[in-house]
Task: inverse folding
C-alpha cells in the first residue's frame, strides 16, 4: 500500500506521517468544519481586550489578484511593487497601486514552492521547498510593466560549497548516518529575515537549523544546528539584533550575539503555546513580540529585564483571541497587528497608547474562500491628527491575493 498523502489544510507535498511529525496539531479542514472539539485548547493566558472602542476602521477590498495556478504562499513589498510566491515555485510581480493590476508578470521560478520572500535594496530573495535560497535582480528596466528579472545567486553559493567540500570539519550530522556540509539546508527553507542595516540575511528551515548569510557576497557566516526539536516555521529579527525562532515543537527561542562572542547563543525559551508555532512578528521598536500558533491564539510578549541594565528576553502578557482555527501569518505596522488564519479571515488589532490600555480588534476582513497563508502591510502618512490609512495584501490557499485599504480614525 502506498504512503498516505498529507491531511493538513496546507498542501505541503509531504506524506501524512511526515506532515504530522512537523504539524501534529493541525487537523484536516473537513474534520474541523463543524466542531472545534478536535482543535487544541487555548493557552490559559488572559485575553488582552481592555482597549475601549475609541477607534473606527473603514475597510474595503480594492482588488482580487488572480494569476497563480497554485496557492499563494508568500508576499513581499518594495516601494513600487508587490511580489507574490506560490506553492508551485512561481514568483510574480504586480504594481502596488490599482487599477493597474492585471495578471502580474512572472519574475521566475525555482524548483520548489516559494516559502518566503524578502526585499533587500534592489534585490528580491526567495526561500524554497527545494532547500535553496535564490537572489533575483532586475536586469531590464526599459518598461515598468515588463521588467526582466534574473536569478543572480543561489545559496549556498558555488564558492561556499567548494570551500567546505574537502574539509572534514565542515560536515555535520543532519540525520542518522547522514552528514552534509554545514552551509546547506537539508529541508525546506521556511522563513527569511534581514537585519536592520541590511548586512545580514537569516534563514530558518524545517531541518531545525537557522543560518546567517553576509549580504555583500552571500557567504554563509554561521549555522545553528538543532536549534529546535522540530521544524522551524518562522524567524524574525528585532532592530537591536535579537533573533526569534518559532517551531513546530511549540517553542519560541530567543538568540543574541554579544560583542565578544563569535556565534549566536540562546537567551531564552518561550513555552506558553500548546501547539506548533506558525508565525512571528516583532514591533518596530523591538520591545513586543507576537506569535501565532495552531492553538488559535496570538500571544503577546514584552521585553523584560534580567535584573541588570540590559533587557534580554520576553515575558508573555496576554493573548489576542477571536480566530477559530490555526493562526498562519502575522504582520505589524505602526500600532496595528494583522493576523491571517485557517478560518479564512484576517483580523486587525490595535494596541493602546499605554501598556495597560490593552488591544482591540478593529475589524474582521472576510472574502477569501480558503485559509489565509501570508500577509504584507504598508502604512501611509497620517492625513490628519486623528487617523491614518494603510494598504493590506493577503495571500490565500484560494489561489488569490486580495488588496485591502484600511482607514483608522479616532472616534
Result:
Amino acid at each position: 500500500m502506498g504512503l498516505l498523502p498529507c491531511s493538513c489544510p496546507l498542501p505541503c507535498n509531504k506524506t501524512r506521517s511526515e506532515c504530522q511529525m512537523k504539524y501534529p496539531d493541525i487537523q484536516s479542514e473537513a474534520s474541523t468544519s463543524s466542531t472545534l472539539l478536535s482543535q487544541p485548547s487555548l493557552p490559559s493566558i488572559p485575553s488582552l481586550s481592555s482597549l475601549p472602542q475609541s477607534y473606527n476602521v473603514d475597510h474595503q477590498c480594492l482588488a482580487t489578484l488572480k494569476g497563480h495556478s497554485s496557492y499563494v504562499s508568500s508576499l513581499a513589498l518594495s516601494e513600487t511593487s508587490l511580489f507574490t510566491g506560490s506553492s508551485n515555485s512561481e514568483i510574480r510581480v504586480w504594481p502596488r497601486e490599482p487599477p493597474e493590476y492585471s495578471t502580474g508578470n512572472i519574475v521566475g521560478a525555482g524548483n520548489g514552492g516559494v516559502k518566503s520572500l524578502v526585499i533587500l535594496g534592489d534585490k528580491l530573495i526567495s526561500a524554497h521547498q527545494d532547500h535553496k535560497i535564490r537572489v533575483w535582480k532586475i536586469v531590464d528596466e526599459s518598461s515598468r510593466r515588463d521588467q526582466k528579472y534574473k536569478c543572480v545567486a543561489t545559496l549556498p553559493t558555488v564558492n561556499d560549497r567548494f570551500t567546505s567540500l574537502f574539509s572534514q570539519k565542515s560536515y555535520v550530522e543532519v540525520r542518522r548516518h547522514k552528514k552534509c556540509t554545514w552551509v546547506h539546508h537539508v529541508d525546506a527553507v521556511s522563513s527569511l529575515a534581514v537585519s536592520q542595516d541590511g548586512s545580514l540575511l537569516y534563514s530558518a528551515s524545517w531541518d531545525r537549523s537557522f543560518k546567517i548569510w553576509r549580504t555583500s557576497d552571500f557567504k554563509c557566516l554561521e549555522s545553528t544546528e538543532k536549534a529546535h526539536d522540530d521544524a522551524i516555521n518562522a524567524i524574525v529579527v528585532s532592530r537591536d539584533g535579537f533573533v526569534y525562532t518559532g517551531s513546530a515543537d511549540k517553542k519560541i527561542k530567543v538568540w543574541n550575539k554579544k560583542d565578544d562572542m563569535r556565534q549566536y547563543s540562546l537567551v531564552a525559551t518561550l513555552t506558553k503555546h500548546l501547539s506548533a508555532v506558525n508565525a512571528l512578528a516583532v514591533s518596530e521598536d523591538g520591545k513586543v513580540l507576537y506569535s501565532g500558533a495552531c492553538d488559535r491564539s496570538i500571544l503577546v510578549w514584552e521585553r523584560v529585564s534580567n535584573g541588570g541594565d540590559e533587557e534580554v528576553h520576553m515575558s508573555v502578557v496576554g493573548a489576542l483571541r477571536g480566530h477559530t482555527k490555526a493562526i498562519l501569518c502575522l504582520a505589524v505596522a505602526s500600532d496595528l497587528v494583522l493576523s491571517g488564519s485557517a478560518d479564512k479571515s484576517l483580523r486587525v488589532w490595535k494596541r493602546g497608547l499605554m501598556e495597560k490600555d490593552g488591544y482591540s480588534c478593529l475589524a474582521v476582513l472576510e472574502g477569501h474562500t480558503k485559509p489565509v497563508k501570508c500577509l504584507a502591510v504598508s502604512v501611509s502618512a497620517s492625513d490628519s491628527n486623528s487617523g491614518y490609512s494603510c494598504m493590506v495584501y493577503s495571500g490565500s490557499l484560494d489561489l488569490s491575493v486580495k488588496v485591502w485599504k484600511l482607514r483608522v480614525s479616532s472616534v
Q: What stands out?
A: DSSP finds three helices and 30 strands in the chain. The first strand starts at residue 55 and ends at 66. The longest helix spans residues 158-165.
